[in-house]
């Protein structure tokens, strides 16, 4: 008997046919729910959980900023899906450091460079404290949307951060929100990041440079005394060159042969 003949003999109301339909519907539902969960409900505890396909698609995520460690990066607790806010709040963002350990994404703001704080034995750059205070006031403890772009050498997620619009629903943030990097440039607390691999989102590099120039002309933020202030890029180059000079001096010092010890009798005996 041919397969076509067998198909014609199957009763659509038979238990076998109903079982096949139920099985197919179950598989389809499982696949659909799995894709929905991966896209809208899967939480990224840290940058190690962000897969290459997420970066390739430049996915948007939202979360709550739990700390601001420097003037151009912060920690984000990813809050996918719903249940994080009233009236449907049944999920909580941890508030204690021990509960936040390995549970946040380290976000590096794309497109900008802020004054450097003191670290690794280097002194703080002028206006670094003011830039940090500005960023904390803007985002600390608040919901921020981020478009994930790449992962840098320090395992931070380079992202375009967006602040929710004031009069529109927050889910419209990716389209109608305010770009945090541009806001920081506009208030004069950052410069445009122009190193290799820099990303500027849909605005482009020219928009970043134009807003930076606008802040300089208006003498906002770090430009209050004029535009002669050392930029973060210049600060990094200066300290990088200083570090290399110290390393070179140490290498030369290690190459100097040790002086012989002992008195004139010891030297006479060695000769």
Automatic annotation (TrEMBL):
InterPro entries: SNase_OB-fold_sf (IPR035437), Staphylococal_nuclease_OB-fold (IPR016071). PROSITE patterns: TNASE_3. GO terms for cellular component: membrane; mitochondrion. Its main location: membrane. It is found in: Membrane; Mitochondrion. It comes from the Eukaryota. The keyword Calcium applies. One of its GO terms (molecular function) is endonuclease activity. SUPFAM superfamilies: Staphylococcal nuclease. Residues 230-271 are annotated as: Disordered. The chain crosses the membrane at residues 16-34. Keywords: Calcium, Endonuclease, Hydrolase, Membrane, Nuclease, Transmembrane, Transmembrane helix. It is a single-pass membrane protein. Residues 59-225 form the TNase-like domain. SMART domains: SNc (SM00318). Belongs to the LCL3 family. This is Nuclease. It comes from Schizopora paradoxa.
């Amino acid at each position: 008997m041919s397969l076509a003949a067998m198909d014609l003999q199957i009763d659509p109301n038979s238990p076998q046919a109903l079982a096949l339909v139920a099985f197919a519907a179950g598989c389809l539902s499982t696949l659909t729910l799995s894709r929905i969960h991966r896209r809208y409900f899967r939480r990224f505890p840290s940058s190690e959980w962000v897969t290459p396909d997420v970066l390739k698609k430049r996915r948007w995520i939202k979360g709550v900023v739990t700390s601001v460690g420097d003037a151009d990066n912060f920690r984000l607790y990813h809050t996918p899906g719903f249940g994080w806010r009233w009236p449907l709040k049944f999920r909580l963002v941890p508030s204690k450091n021990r509960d936040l350990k390995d549970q946040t994404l380290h976000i590096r703001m794309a497109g900008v460079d802020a004054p450097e704080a003191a670290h690794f034995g280097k002194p703080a750059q002028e206006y670094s404290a003011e830039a940090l205070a500005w960023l904390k006031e803007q985002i600390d403890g608040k919901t921020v949307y981020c478009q994930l772009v790449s992962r840098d050498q320090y395992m931070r997620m380079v992202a375009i951060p967006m602040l929710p619009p004031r009069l529109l629903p927050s889910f419209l943030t990716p389209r109608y929100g305010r770009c945090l990097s541009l806001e920081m440039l506009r208030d004069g607390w950052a410069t445009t990041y122009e190193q290799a691999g820099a990303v500027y989102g849909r605005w482009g590099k020219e928009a970043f440079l134009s807003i930076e120039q606008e802040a300089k002309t208006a003498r906002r933020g770090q430009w209050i005394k004029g535009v002669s202030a050392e930029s973060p890029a210049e600060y990094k180059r200066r300290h990088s060159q200083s570090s290399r000079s110290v390393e070179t001096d140490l290498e030369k010092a290690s190459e100097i042969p040790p002086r012989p010890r002992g008195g004139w009798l010891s030297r006479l005996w060695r000769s």
